[in-house]
Design goal:
The structure is a single chain. The protein has about 120 residues and is mostly beta strands. The protein contains no helices and eleven strands. The strands form two sheets. Strands 2, 4, 5, 6, 9, 10 and 11 form a seven-stranded mixed sheet that branches. Strands 1-3-8-7 form a four-stranded antiparallel sheet, with no helix packed on it. The protein is globular.
Length: about 120
């Protein structure tokens, strides 16, 4: 059983910043593709950012240049640093993980999911 736990979501004003974290006691982040997805009310879940075992990153067009995904393998923690937040960034943010070293930009590539953390930008 893989358990992923997100934290760091909050309500912030437009232009503000947040850092989300994802940790696990049952999954090792370093060797695999991991990433972040988000879902706003009434919208489909969309990819935000991914990072593979070589630390190659990929971002959705709407967050490119504003968000940064990273990981700390010593702490077994995945991060999403979000800056210059916009109201359209409001969503539930999910940490997701795979059993592959590289990433593909679709949800079915990620079998393991966290419970989500809410980000609200006003």
């Amino acid at each position: 059983h893989v358990q992923l736990v997100e934290s760091g979501g909050a309500s912030v004003q437009a232009g503000g910043s947040l850092r989300l974290s994802c940790s696990s006691s049952t999954y090792t982040i370093g060797p695999y593709c991991v990433g972040w997805f988000r879902q706003a009310p009434g919208k489909e879940r969309e990819g935000v950012a991914t990072i593979n075992s070589l630390n190659t990153t990929f971002y959705g067009d709407s967050v490119k240049g504003r968000f940064t995904v990273s990981k700390d393998t010593a702490k077994n923690t995945l991060y999403l640093q979000m800056t210059n937040l916009r109201p359209e960034d409001t969503a539930m943010y999910y940490c997701a993980a795979t059993s592959y070293w590289d990433c593909r930009w679709y949800q079915s590539h990620f079998p393991y999911w966290g419970q989500g953390t809410q980000v609200t930008v006003s």
